[in-house]
């Protein structure tokens, strides 16, 4: 039995586009609906439903329609609208059948030949604006936290290791003849060129962006103030959208996933799986694993080396680990774990934004007089045993951050710094651990102290909205228009 013998529906494509193609071809040949219906032995109402995109014809009927119209099935199934007018009609019909329009509780407008192009354009524009507002309304802090928590859960399950991204990074490096050692800026430029992009360093990069990629003209714009070494990661993050096939994110969860993938790809290129894995395996054999050595071997930032270590630790070294980035205020900015450490979290299980215990390495490192060398510390947890952690400070425009990597006590034997005598205890989330003042201080000051809170600007601000949350689209589009005109 062949496919042509099976009375099955056509593979789901675009019923609206198919219907418009059938109608335009019929009108072009001068057939009435009744004449076409008679030619294929169907009722006119059935053909009308097909032309209006309300029904998909099964394969034998589609073949009969194509034959009656002196056409082919392939021609009728072309995905592009047959005309500009048809494209407008399809856009409006599709919008009226969508979940957003349905949620408004409005009756759909019948689109006919009498409906002017101006009316259709207005309806399409109104629907696009309603969808935009719907996306902004949906991007609540709770929705964002849930999406982030779900993504962190997935990362934990896979050990923060993604083979597809590793293969993509390896393919990019192979394309420019990488043979080992730190990946040069020239190699990154060559990768960009092979993907069809040129690099442009400008002084007017939009303030809300780290880079801007112009896919129409094959250009990547970066700040002229970036040191040449540090330009590698922004270029790779920009190219990640092309390599990973990213489209405009349709949800906050998709936006977060794309950002994680971009950072992962940049790390996988700058610290290649094979070479970085060799460095780490030798270090484990020597019981001397160090983020500083990994950083220096590939000429990257400490934070990127620490991130990359989490990608490879479980897959290549059979080690469970955790990672933290905390602001000097104590706020947890980034976190990952698959070693069972209990990060502070909100009611939804989200780590980011929570306050780190003052006794954890990520906080005690800020109090050390030596802020150049790594800080090592054991922390006895009230629940979960003892963890060892190494931490360093890094500067950013928002202040100081600590970047920390840790393991369970039984795994510290593989790391440099395990001989440290620094040790603390943490009973958080019990607020008697580090949040509540002693009884003596409380009695002395609770009725006399009246501090004014330094409210963070983000406390009352709405969650960033737009296709790319936090990015000023008007500024970006004006920037691209300005630079395209200057070519």
TrEMBL record:
Species per Swiss-Prot/TrEMBL record: Leucobacter exalbidus
Domain (HTH cro/C1-type): residue spans on this chain: 22-76
Protein name: Transcriptional regulator with XRE-family HTH domain
UniProtKB keywords: DNA-binding
Pfam families given in the database record: HTH_3, Peptidase_M78
GO terms under cellular component: cytosol
Sequence similarity: Belongs to the short-chain fatty acyl-CoA assimilation regulator (ScfR) family.
Single GO term (MF): DNA-binding transcription factor activity
């Amino acid at each position: 039995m062949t496919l042509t013998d099976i009375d099955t529906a056509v593979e789901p494509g675009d019923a609206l586009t198919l219907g418009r193609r059938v109608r335009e071809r019929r009108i072009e040949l001068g057939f009435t609906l009744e004449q076409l219906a008679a030619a294929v032995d169907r009722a006119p109402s059935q053909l009308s439903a097909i032309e209006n995109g309300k029904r998909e014809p099964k394969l034998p009927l589609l073949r009969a329609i194509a034959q009656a119209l002196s056409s082919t099935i392939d021609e009728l199934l072309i995905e592009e609208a047959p005309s500009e007018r048809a494209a407008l009609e399809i856009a409006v019909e599709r919008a009226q059948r969508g979940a957003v329009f349905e949620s408004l509780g409005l009756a759909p407008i019948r689109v006919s030949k009498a409906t002017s192009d101006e009316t259709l354009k207005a309806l399409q524009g109104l629907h696009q604006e309603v969808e935009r507002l719907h996306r902004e309304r949906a991007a609540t802090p709770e929705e964002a936290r849930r999406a982030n928590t779900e993504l962190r859960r997935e990362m934990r399950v896979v050990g923060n290791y993604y083979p597809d991204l590793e293969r993509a990074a390896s393919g990019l490096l192979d394309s420019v003849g990488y043979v080992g050692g730190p990946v040069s800026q020239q190699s990154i430029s060559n990768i960009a060129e092979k993907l069809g992009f040129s690099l442009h360093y400008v002084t007017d990069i939009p303030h809300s962006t780290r880079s801007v990629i112009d896919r129409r003209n094959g250009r990547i714009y970066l700040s002229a103030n970036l040191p040449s070494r540090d330009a590698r990661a922004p270029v790779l993050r920009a190219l990640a959208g092309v390599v990973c096939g990213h489209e405009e994110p349709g949800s906050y969860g998709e936006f977060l996933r794309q950002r994680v993938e971009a950072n992962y790809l940049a790390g996988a290129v700058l610290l290649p799986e094979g070479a970085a894995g060799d460095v780490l395996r030798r270090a484990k054999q020597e019981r001397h694993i160090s983020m500083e050595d990994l950083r220096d071997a590939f000429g990257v930032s400490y934070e990127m080396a620490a991130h990359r270590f989490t990608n490879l630790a479980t897959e290549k070294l059979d080690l469970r680990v955790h990672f933290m980035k905390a602001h000097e205020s104590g706020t947890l900015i980034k976190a990952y774990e698959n070693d069972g450490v209990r990060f502070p979290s909100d009611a939804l299980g989200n780590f980011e934004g929570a306050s780190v215990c003052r006794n954890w390495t990520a906080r005690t490192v800020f109090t050390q007089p030596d802020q150049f060398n790594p800080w090592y510390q054991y922390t006895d947890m009230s629940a979960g045993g003892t963890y060892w952690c190494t931490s360093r400070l890094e500067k950013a425009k928002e202040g100081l951050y600590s970047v920390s990597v840790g393991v369970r006590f039984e795994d510290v034997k593989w790391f440099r710094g395990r001989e440290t005598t620094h040790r603390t205890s943490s009973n958080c989330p019990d607020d008697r651990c580090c949040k509540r003042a002693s009884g003596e201080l409380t009695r002395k000051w609770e009725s006399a102290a009246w501090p004014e809170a330094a409210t963070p600007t983000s406390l009352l601000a709405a969650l960033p909205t737009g296709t790319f949350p936090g990015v000023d689209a008007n500024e970006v589009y004006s920037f691209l228009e300005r630079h395209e005109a200057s070519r």
